[in-house]
Design goal:
InterPro entries: TPR-like_helical_dom_sf, TPR_rpt. With 479 residues, the protein is an all-alpha fold. The protein has helices spanning 2-31, 37-47, 51-54, 60-84, 106-112, 118-136, 140-153, 157-169, 173-189, 193-209, 213-230, 233-249, 253-268, 273-289, 293-310, 313-329, 333-350, 353-369, 373-390, 393-409, 413-429, 434-446, 458-464, and strands spanning 90-94, 100-104.
Length: 479
């Protein structure tokens, strides 16, 4: 039924656009007095009435002009409905730091409340719809409060799942995990495979953001399996894309590109703009990891345009942060600073610590490139503080590596070594392989633009941090 509704808006949009162009043409022709007699005879034969009595000649062009305006209104309305269209069941939304979160609409809530007392059903529905309105307005604190009231009226999978999504957008991943676990337990008890897959998919995002990549991989694979059995496009796409984010977190862009390209191809065949925007943004991030910065920037710009067209502020914030990083890599520092500051403003309005941390980290790298090392260290320390506050060890480790690189460029080897040791410990805690991290550590300190010394291997370089240069002996005093 959802696809039929979407196809209806598409067909209506194409038809009304065609009629608008036709009526504009006829209005121009009749205003100039060149309406063909054959057209008049055709209309008269269809209506079995003389054409001049249907519409006086002096008002003909006004009639066609009014019809053109009406057709344009219908075309705009249908296009707006098509852009704002989203599934009545499961929605695919951008997750913090990449990937998909799945949210439930009112369709499943009505099914869950069929066997509940009418008074309880009305109360639960009223608060749930209130939460939906707040969620659509990007007011996640108010939405979380409304969903919680709906849960107090009647415990439903839908309300727990959506409450967890609200907590994710506020970077409260522990509280999000509690709600996703409850929604999974309820879904399994009621044998609702689709909502069980959505709960698993969201649980994987929470595991990933807390640095538990092994647990995330486990639940993502379960979600992929359930989605494959149901042959559900959104469930499969979200789970495959989220698997790709794990490869990105481990620094393996070549392995991440394949699932994301598959997801992108699938969403390009639909008109679901939120899902398509997430895929475009994440494909851009993969190309950024592969150092194809211009290609990555093109993808981020497309994602940003789609997010703005549907009014999704979390997605817009992420796309701005990603685009700001690509501008930085391309050397467009002024554009990068403007983009990251806009992302920081939106993240502050949304109260999303994860996006604020990413924007602060990007601004720190920008100041480092401009040789404003004090400002760079201040921004990186702020990003590190935010990542540690929300319990994201991978983000904290990435910032520690950046801070270590900053100290290394200043020749402060002891501080650099301390930060790198902390970064390695957090990466190992998250289950990320050590060899890519060694290479990343080398790049952080050896491939900065201010270090002109010859490259060394990661092990040799780490060892060189311990070697103290001999102090210069004072010149012997003259006798």
């Amino acid at each position: 039924m959802e696809r039929v509704r979407l196809q209806f808006w598409n067909a209506l949009g194409y038809l009304s656009t065609f009629l608008y162009l036709l009526f504009v043409l006829l209005a121009g022709i009749t205003y100039a007095g060149y309406l063909p007699d054959a057209l008049k005879r055709h209309v008269s034969s269809l209506l079995q009435y003389p054409f001049e009595k249907i519409l006086p000649p002096q008002f003909m062009w006004a009639f066609f002009a009014a019809a053109a305006v009406f057709s344009l209104y219908i075309a705009v309305l249908s296009d707006r409905c098509r852009i704002r269209w989203r599934p009545a069941g499961l929605e695919a939304l951008p997750a913090p730091d990449g990937g998909y979160l799945q949210k439930v609409g009112t369709l499943y809530l009505r099914q869950e409340l069929d066997d509940v007392l009418p008074s309880v059903r009305r109360e639960a529905k009223r608060f749930f719809r209130q939460g939906e309105r707040h969620f659509a307005a990007n007011q996640y604190q108010a939405a979380a409060s409304a969903y919680l009231k709906s849960i107090n009226a009647a415990r439903t999978i839908s309300a727990h799942l959506n409450l967890g999504v609200c907590h994710c957008y506020r970077s409260a991943f522990d509280r999000a995990m509690e709600n996703f676990e409850l929604s999974l337990a309820l879904a399994r008890r009621s044998k609702n495979e689709k909502l069980a897959a959505a709960s698993l998919c969201n649980m994987g995002i929470s595991h990933r953001e807390r640095g538990k990549l092994t647990d995330a991989l486990l639940v993502f694979k379960q979600a992929v399996g359930i989605g494959g059995k149901m042959n559900d496009f959104i469930s499969q796409s979200c789970s495959q894309g989220n698997l790709g984010t794990l490869f990105m977190a481990e620094g393996r862009p070549d392995e991440a590109l394949k699932p994301w390209q598959s997801v992108l191809k699938g969403f390009e065949s639909t008109d679901y703009r939120a899902g398509l925007a997430v895929a475009l943004d994440n494909v851009g991030s993969v190309y950024g990891m592969k150092r194809e910065y211009r290609c990555a920037l093109d993808y981020h710009k497309k994602a940003l345009a789609l997010y703005r067209s549907i009014g999704n502020l979390p997605g817009e914030t992420q796309a701005l942060t990603n685009a700001g990083l690509m501008y930085l890599r391309l050397g467009k520092l002024r554009k990068s600073l403007k983009t990251n500051r806009e992302a920081l403003r939106l993240a502050g309005w949304l109260n999303c610590s994860s996006d604020r941390a990413r924007a602060h980290g990007n601004i720190g790298l920008l100041y480092e490139k401009k040789r404003k090392l004090g400002d760079a260290l201040k921004s990186m320390d702020k990003a590190l503080e935010l990542y540690e506050r929300i319990g994201n060890p991978i983000g904290a480790a990435t910032q520690l590596m950046a801070i270590g690189g900053l100290y290394g460029s200043q020749g402060k080897r002891a501080e650099a070594l301390k930060r790198l040791g902390e970064a390695r410990a957090k990466f190992v805690q998250s289950g990320i392989l050590s060899s890519p991290i060694e290479s990343a550590i080398e790049r952080a300190l050896r491939q900065n633009p201010y270090d002109k010394s010859p490259r060394k291997g990661p092990r040799e370089f780490i060892q060189s941090l311990f070697i103290r240069r001999p102090k210069k002996q004072p010149a012997p005093k003259a006798l």
